Amino acid sequence: MLIDTNAYLGPFAFRQLRHNTADGLLKLMDAKGIAKAWVSNAAAITYRNVQPANEELAEAVRKRRDRLVPLAVINPFYAGWQDDLTACRKQLGMIGLRLYPKWHNYNLTDGCCLDLVDAATSLRMFITIPLRVEDYRQRSWLVDVKDLTLSEIAPLIRAKRQARFVLLNGMGFTGSPLGKKDGGLPPNYWIEISRLSALMANEIGALVEALGADRVVFGTGMPFNAPDPALVKMEVLQMSLRDKERIRWQNAAALEKTAQ
User: Which helix (H) or strand (E) holds 154?
Assistant: First the structure.
């Protein structure tokens, strides 16, 4: 079984995405053996007011919530975000968030973001943070949005020990406190594999060794990325079947359960 913690529906402002409808993504998932995916609306990345995108997403997955788990995008720099968060959780039934500080013009340690993390945590929601949306070298000439750095994420994790964070589309963790057993950070974050190496440097194996297999989760980045590289990584990893199953789906399922 596979649970993809890093997937999207909907349009993106700067490039065409294939398989970005509920039916299209499910067909791709079926072809690749992926049972379930956490999805947010890619349109929300560039919306000023993100709530319409959350509502569109909820309707898109309404009949397939057994396989498509909708995550809310909330911009704490936008007025009224508190009402949006409450609506996403209590009316739309969303159990997690995606944050885009670089795209929405705030820092992870700004007061508005810290308030959002506290509010989401009080609602039992987990928080996913993509370090990038797409390769910076492929960015549109209209925008200049850089990747989040690991040094920007660590202070938030340290400050909000009761929250649960899933870090998406990242790499270089083994050179950061985030990837070290003695990094001085609480064990309240999980790392997704889509940009990590499974051979050569084998960052996935190093993270399992340092943090444990229960702190790593499967993800692909589809439909921004093809899912095949992430699937191959799981095949070539040199670790026990028990640890592979934790990464493939068990850790994600446990996070979902804590948000129910």
Answer: helix 150-159
Q: Are 156 and 120 in contact (CB under 8 A)?
A: no
Domain of residue 9 covers 3-258
- For the whole model, what pTM was predicted? 0.96
Helix or strand run (H / E) with residue 5: strand 3-9
Task: Report angle CA 64, 51, 219 to the nearest 5 degrees.
Answer: 50
- The amino acid present at 16, given as its one-letter code, is Q
Phi, psi of 51 (to 5 degrees): -60, -40
Q: Which residue has the tokens 């319409």?
A: 52
Total tally of structural domains belonging to the chain: 1
DSSP labels for 56-100? Answer: HHHHHTTT-TTTEEE-EE--TTSTTHHHHHHIIIIIS---EEE--
Output the CA torsion sign for 97, 98, 99, 103. negative
Whether 130 contacts 98, CB under 8 Å:
yes
Strands 96-98 and 165-168: unpaired
Angle at 230 between CA 249 and CA 27, to 5 degrees: 75
Return the half-sphere exposure (C-beta side, CA atoms, 13 A cut-off) of residue 28.
25
CA 86, CA 33: separation in Å to the nearest integer?
A: 34
- Tell me the per-residue pLDDT of 176-235, one tens digit each, with 9 for 90 and over: 999 999 889 999 999 999 999 988 889 999 999 999 999 999 999 999 999 999 999 999
Burial of 28 (0-12, 13-18, 19+ CB in 10 A): buried
Cα distance between residue 188 and residue 231, in whole Å = 25
CATH, residue 143: 3.20.20.140
Spatial distance between the Cα atoms of 239 and 24, rounded to a whole number of angstroms:
33
